[in-house]
Specification:
Organism: hydrothermal vent metagenome
Helix content: 40-55%
Number of helices: 3
Keywords: Bacterial flagellum, Cell projection, Cilium, Flagellum
Number of strands: 4
Subcellular location: Bacterial flagellum basal body
GO cellular component, one term: bacterial-type flagellum basal body, rod
Strand content: 5-15%
Family: Belongs to the flagella basal body rod proteins family.
Structural class: alpha+beta
Radius of gyration: 22 Å
Largest sheet: 2 strands, antiparallel
């Protein structure tokens, strides 16, 4: 692995976690949005991460891992298919004929846990980036 690959791996993790944090913040910002431009309440979104898949036997996968760079990326953003929350509020402007309002399927506590997890992953990638930088500087000092 060369130095540029060593920097590229945590950098891809930082990009992926940044995108995840953006989606989480969007979910939290729309926790009470009963109307969207598409119609209906806001639907919670989540990210799906991926890397390039391994093929063949374990030995060939191990050899391939040594020779290829694995970076994480956001492969898609998916909508949560859980049902919306129905709350009886007959005076709400978005209430249906029975007096129920559909609220987003966003759970603020779940989003906060996801945010903490994303922040910890982001911090781990920063730590790895700093370690690679430190090793590169130490390698340069050897040549003096």
């Amino acid at each position: 692995m060369n130095i540029s690959q060593a920097f590229a791996i945590p950098a891809s993790g930082l990009d992926a976690q940044r995108e995840r944090l953006n989606i989480i913040s969007s979910n939290l910002a729309n926790v009470d949005s009963t109307q969207t431009p598409e119609g209906g309440p806001y639907r919670r979104r989540d990210v799906v991460f991926s890397t390039s898949p391994a093929e063949g036997s374990f030995a060939s996968a191990l050899a391939q891992e040594r020779n290829t760079l694995k970076q994480v990326k956001v492969s898609q953003i998916v909508y949560d298919q859980r049902p919306f929350k129905e709350v009886f509020e007959p005076s709400h402007p978005d209430a249906n004929t029975e007096g129920y309002v559909l609220y987003p399927n966003v759970n603020a506590m779940e989003e906060m846990v996801n945010m903490i997890s994303a922040l910890r992953s982001y911090e781990a990638n920063v730590t790895m980036l700093n370690s690679v930088k430190s090793m590169a500087l130490k390698a340069l000092e050897i040549g003096r």
